[in-house]
Amino acid sequence: MTDKTIHFISLGCPKNRVDSEVMLGVAEREGYRHGAAPDGADVIVVNACGFIDAAKKESVDTILAMADHKATGRCSRLVVAGCLSQRHPDELAAGLPEVDHFLGSSDMLALGSVLRGDADRMLVGNPADWLVAAESPRRLSSHAGSAYVKIAEGCNRSCSFCVIPSLRGKQRSRRIPDVVREVEELVARGVKEVNLVSQDTIAYGRDLPAAESRELAELVHAVAEVKGLAWVRIFYLYPEKLSEPLVELLAEHPRVLPYVDMPLQHAADAMLRRMKRGHGGARLRKVVDDLRAKVEDLVFRTAFIVGHPGETDTEFDELCEFVAWAEFDRVGVFRYSDEETSHSATLAAKVEQRVATTRYKKLMTMSRRIAKKKNQALVGSELDVLVEGASEEHEAVLAGRHRGQAPEIDGLVYLSGTESLERLPKPGELVRVKITQASDYDLAGEVTGFLSRATARRAGPARGESAKVGARGAGQRISLRVLPTDNRGVS
Ligand code: SF4
Q1: Ligand 1 and 242: CB distance under 6 A
Q2: 490 close to ligand 1 (CB < 6 Angstrom)
Q3: What is the C-alpha to C-alpha distance for residues 71 and 177, in angstroms, rounded to an integer?
């Protein structure tokens, strides 16, 4: 163990977060300790997002801010990793002399040679060379009890506004046994909730040899059967008809949450064609209808882009009408930006930023109103809540999330009444909460007791064996400095 410290900043999406955690694992293997603050760190790593203009700007601002620590602090090496390096290696190398090393979106393990001091400046390889595995080094950084699990990498689609396939390569799926082994290890470290992520989750397994099991439903079922796990949440579903087995899992399995994250991007046929989404508005209505009809208490998260080239007032009105009809529980809205190398950047009929902002505000206001109405309907109900720890607002107030709240993006449940319990709930524990108040995205409620298992769905008494809570995580979790660039809109 050296007495050297390393500080990490993870920008972008949960998939980038997993890569940051792998690099943290690599740094630990090289004997580095994690430093929670940049000043005093010997090495600073910015795992940067390069998805859209806003994300790129934030990445460069963050890199320059960290470069100051080289001038004034102990920092001797500044490393930039991730999609931004993968996308613009030469421009960055020329424009940011302060940066000592650039690692691409598949070069996490190369951090080892950087820390050993025998690496070149440019370590940007082929984005298709990497796929995380159960044996990859990894240090968890999310809140206690929760972890992201990357089930595949890359994307084979060609949505006209998106550059991710060029940053992450073609789709490559992990084998089910490898994912299950990782989840078993995570549960042994105290994890209760796994969040399955990839660029194109519904396409999981389609790239695997026909002889191998390659259905998303098979993977989700295998993960949900891991002893000690309480919750499985699925992210980044492309809007296709979900297989019957997958819908059944969402509707019935005690540990697969009735939660769907499915970015839809738009609803007007002409716009969906321009975006090369491969389907029209009617398909989206059918997918939403089907899921709502078959999955009780479904929480539907989605995302839309406004201001894409060619978007007319009529098309935007169609989108608003669709959102009013569907009443999505969680909505992210993104203002389009031209991304060089994307097809959309070559399209005419650009929409003025002023107009895009007006549309953004209108759709966000509509969605917030719907979220508030749905939140208020939860007052008086009893919910299972995964405790995250002291809230950011006040260290004496505990906060957590119920099934319908994904980590970091969906609001929190603020907990009271803990003084009447035999002890204070710990981060990573499940408790039962009676909801007493609701705001647009958050809830507040009284803890009425501890849960030794995730209670079965309302559809009747407990099904499936009890998920005993595993011993809390071996090895201290680190609090990674995370600046989630809001690019959860892809897929
Ligand atoms: S938006 Fe999603 S599905 Fe489409 S190309 Fe990008 S990553 Fe792939």
Answers
A1: no
A2: yes
A3: 47
**Homologous superfamily assigned to 5-125:** Methylthiotransferase, N-terminal domain (3.40.50.12160)
Helix (H) or strand (E) holding 410: none
Instruction: Check pLDDT > 70 for residue 35.
Output: yes
CATH fold for the domain made of 382-451: OB fold (Dihydrolipoamide Acetyltransferase, E2P) (2.40.50)
Domain boundaries, the chain: 5-125, 146-376, 382-451
Give the integer Cα–Cα distance in Å for 269 and 280: 5
**What is the rounded distance in angstroms from the CA atom of residue 93 to the CA atom of residue 82?**
14
Is the separation of the CB atoms in 16 and 83 below 8 Å?
yes
Which DSSP category does 117 fall into? T
What integer is the mean pLDDT of 50-60? 91
Estimate the share of the chain in helix, then strand, then coil, as percent rounded to the nearest 5.
Answer: 35, 20, 45
Say if CB 315 and CB 271 are below 8 A apart.
Answer: yes
pLDDT given at position 40: 85
Report CA(238)–ligand 1 centroid distance (Å): 8
> Residue 396: its pLDDT value, please?
86
Alpha carbons within 13 A on the beta-carbon side of 75: 27
Q: What distance in Å separates the CA atoms of residue 98 and residue 73, rounded to the nearest whole number?
A: 14
In short, whether 433's Cβ falls inside 6 Å of ligand 1 is: no
- Give pLDDT tens digits for 256-279: 999 999 999 999 999 999 999 999
Integer distance in angstroms from the first to the last C-alpha of the chain?
A: 41
pLDDT > 70 in the chain, percent: 91
Residue type, 253: H
Name the one residue in this structure whose structure tokens are 């959309």.
344
* Tokens (6 digits) for 127: 């984005």
Q: What span, in angstroms and rounded, lies between the C-alpha atoms of 233 and 196?
A: 6
Q: Which parts of 200-339 are beta strand (E)?
A: 231-234, 256-261, 299-306, 330-335
What is the rounded distance in angstroms from the CA atom of residue 490 to the CA atom of residue 304? 9
| CB-CB contact of 412 with 401 (8 Å) | yes
Mean pLDDT computed over 96-105: 97
- Please, what CATH class does the domain formed by 146-376 belong to? alpha beta
Q: Provide DSSP, 425-476.
A: PPTT-EEEEEEEEE-SS-EEEEEEEEESSPPPPTTSS--S---PPPPPPSS-
159 lines ligand 1 (CB under 6 A): yes
CB 177 within 8 A of CB 193: no
The answer to whether 95 and 89 are in contact (CB under 8 A) is no
Q: Name which residue sits closest to atom 2 of ligand 1, judged by CA.
A: 491
Percent of the chain having pLDDT more than 90?
83
